Amino acid sequence: MTTKYKNVYINDVATVVGPYEYKGPLSKRFDKHYEDMYFGCDSLECAEVKLMSDSIDLVLKKAKQEKSDVDLFIAGDLQNQITASCYTALKLERPFLGIYSACATNTEGLLLGANFIESKMADNVLVSVSSHNMVSEKQFRNPTEYGGPKPGTATFTATGGASCLLTNKKGKVKIESSTIGIPIDMAQTDPLHMGSVMAPAAAYTINKHLSDLDRTVDDYDLILTGDLGIFGKEILRDYIKSEYSIDLKDKYNDCGVMLYDLKKQKEVQAGGSGPVCSALVVYSDIIKKLEEGQLKRVLYVATGALFNPTMVFQKENILSIAHAISLESVL
Amino acid sequence: MTTKYKNVYINDVATVVGPYEYKGPLSKRFDKHYEDMYFGCDSLECAEVKLMSDSIDLVLKKAKQEKSDVDLFIAGDLQNQITASCYTALKLERPFLGIYSACATNTEGLLLGANFIESKMADNVLVSVSSHNMVSEKQFRNPTEYGGPKPGTATFTATGGASCLLTNKKGKVKIESSTIGIPIDMAQTDPLHMGSVMAPAAAYTINKHLSDLDRTVDDYDLILTGDLGIFGKEILRDYIKSEYSIDLKDKYNDCGVMLYDLKKQKEVQAGGSGPVCSALVVYSDIIKKLEEGQLKRVLYVATGALFNPTMVFQKENILSIAHAISLESVL
């Protein structure tokens, strides 16, 4: 489903990262970073709450807004029952809707927020996501053995919190349109090769977006997938060409590849993942280039794998979904 | 946040239940029931997918609509990473947004669907929820020992799937308004007394709804909470009177109390719970009374406890939230 918006702008964005992300190429563009993985909290789960909460405090400060200016808070994360978002929402004390689309959660949040603003049901909507590498490892891969090798296709859940304040007041970057994806099943069962699981969902949504709006790849300066990683990125290039005859040319990149220095940071294997991965790249790097007019229009396609460990143990296929947001420079 | 709608109607609803719900007082009003807990599936998790899928097949049949008529599918459940909804969405093959508000998920879905229809971004939105008693026991209370006694304040997760097809075409029942709640923390840590955890969230949202719309309890024929159970129901009555000076009079009931025959079905202890609990009662009983004009206006306040087992083990407080939908007879 593709929707166009006339009146939805990004007021401001904020990013908070852990040590691995801070060592990556976008290092200096993040608003805040931590040197360890606990940030002074008693548990990893609460540390993730701190990441999201920090990003909210920062975006409100940057936008010179108070908590009470937020009409609606929309958030999601990977913790079971999205508890990082729920406990963050408690601190914010604003109306809260919890969402879940795995690593595609951020674009689900942005399009829902855009919907509330476009329809004049809200003036200011705050959209947040987070993930924490060690929380994810503990939850999805328990027991994670020390020194247990992973295949090179495995991705590395990013540690960070990211928030975006959407508004109806004209700003430098607008949300121009969105496309909601459908779940895709390619009969894949390997949770250590998420790029291959999610690439077909990205292809479906990119094709759907372009065909619904009668556009081509040339109508965008950049098409950016969420967290396919180096292998998934190449799979998408091939798959979208063979399946939908779309040539992504030199217009395509993947946030999972951009977040880390893959040559130096060997621990991240095929690249970054997690709901915050794409948000960190878009909010630190892409929004700035849109604000400055270096980029005119970007298609941000967050990609998510829909599964849980129980489904993997039961040999069910891992599903995927992708939701797209078109961001436009207002310059 | 309270929003009024002019143009959002319920096309049809459908309910599917397990054996415990079928033994309750609403027995004959459910569209379909199963005698066991597996429904021919290989796992309990897949059985829950069947419950939700069945309710979708039924609602589309009753409404004489095809899958392709559904513009958008919104769904949530209690399984980690809402996998019951994701795997159901795969079968439906329509644009899908995953949501999570624990047992308040159904009203989150209905208000989001109403938003898409009111703003003309969609014509037909399908909203589904499910829960499965044994999936929840396995996931939230593992290891569940045979014969292990629970306190009488414990509620019983309902087994069922429920779907509602929202439309912009005039029907017999409309969604008139909604109120989005905020997370509430009353420093409670007992996962076997959810009624007491959630009652304050219900009180907050009922008061917010009434004050935002400048209404009183007398503007409703019925105020219906989601799944507080017998103890939570009395706590809400007292709490909302002392905290907000609201007397619920004879206008109040709770779906967790209505779903089962609490005198005969001792195994359900304080009443039903789970995202599907309130949906089963509203879709089998309340909608019918609204269609026939026996009820003119009902405030449906689904209540959810925001937590997961990890947070309980770490001695974090259990949070709660409630979202309200006002349903009106169009007669």
Key terms:
6-stranded mixed β-sheet, alpha/beta, 14 strands, Peroxisomal Thiolase, Chain A, domain 1, homodimer, 2 domains, 331 residues
Write the layout of secondary structure elements.
The structure is a homodimer.
Chain A: E1 2-4, E2 9-17, H1 19-22, E3 32-33, H2 44-62, E4 72-76, H3 83-92, E5 96-98, H4 105-118, E6 124-131, H5 133-141, E7 156-157, E8 160-167, E9 173-179, H6 194-212, E10 222-225, H7 229-244, E11 252-254, H8 255-258, E12 272-273, H9 275-291, E13 297-306, H10 309-313, E14 319-329
Parallel strand pairs in A: 2-3, 4-5, 4-6, 7-12, 10-11, 10-13
Antiparallel strand pairs in A: 1-9, 2-8, 6-8, 9-14, 13-14
How would you explain this protein's 3D organization?
The structure is a homodimer of 331-residue chains. By secondary structure, chain A is α/β, with parallel strands linked by helices. Chain A folds into two domains: 2-167, Stage V sporulation protein AD (Peroxisomal Thiolase, Chain A, domain 1, 3-Layer(aba) Sandwich), CATH 3.40.47; 173-329, Stage V sporulation protein AD (Peroxisomal Thiolase, Chain A, domain 1), CATH 3.40.47.40. Helix content of chain A is 35%, strand content 23%. In chain A, the strands form three sheets. Chain A has a six-stranded mixed beta sheet with strand order 1-9-14-13-10-11, with helices on both faces. A six-stranded mixed beta sheet of chain A has the order 3-2-8-6-4-5, sandwiched between helices. The mean pLDDT of chain A is 96.
